Amino acid sequence: MKIESCARLGLTFALAGALAACGGGGDGAGDNAAPSPSQASAENLGAKRLLATPMAGTQIRPAPPTTSQLLDWAQTQYPTLFESGTQTALGEYQGLTYEYRHYPGTGNYLGVRDGEAYGLGPFTGDQLQGFGKVADYACHVFSVECAGVGIDTLTITGARVDVAGGGGSFKPAGAATATETAASCVTAAGRTTCTSLLAIGWSESTAERLVVTLHSSYADRGVTPGHGVNGINLAYSVFGSNGLSVICLSNPAAGADCDFAALGIRLNPQARTLTFNDTRAPVPGGGTVMLNGTLTY
Question: d(Cα 123, Cα 100) in Å, to the nearest integer?
Answer without folding.
Answer: 16
